[in-house]
Amino acid sequence: MQVVAQSWLVLQLTGSGALLGLVAAAQFLPVLLLGPYGGLVADRAGKRRLLMGTQSVLGVLAWWHWPGSGARRCTRRRPPGVSRGSCARACGMSAACRACWCRC
Q1: Of the candidates 4, 42, 59, 67, which lies 20 to 30 Å from 74 by C-alpha distance?
Q2: Residue among 103, 66, 65, 63 nearest 87 (CA)
């Protein structure tokens, strides 16, 4: 779904089939370049150790990107009766802080 939406957006913004092809090629370029190296590592490394390492990295990334975790935690609360957008603009909050703070 993301590929279709991205392709449609590029075509709507530029109207160029060449740029659409360039974006599609660039999207799959990392897989083409890093795939053989990943296969080499998977064949030579121990499966358990490799899976533990990749899942640990993914777990850390998931924790880091979770809106309420780590440095992105916002402790302010929106006053009752104030809309989310006007409150965030009035406080001059960053986009990361607005994402979790304005859910109240």
Answers
A1: 59
A2: 103
The pLDDT of residue 94 is above 70: no
Write the CA distances from 91 to 75, 81, 84, integer angstroms: 13, 16, 11
- Return d(Cα 103, Cα 98) in angstroms, integer: 8
Q: What is d(CA 93, CA 100) in angstroms, rounded to the nearest whole number?
A: 11
Residue of 87, 60, 93 lying closest to 74 (CA atoms): 93
Terminal Cα distance for the chain, rounded = 30
Show me where the domains of the chain are located.
1-44
pLDDT for 87 equals 53
pLDDT at res. 6: 87
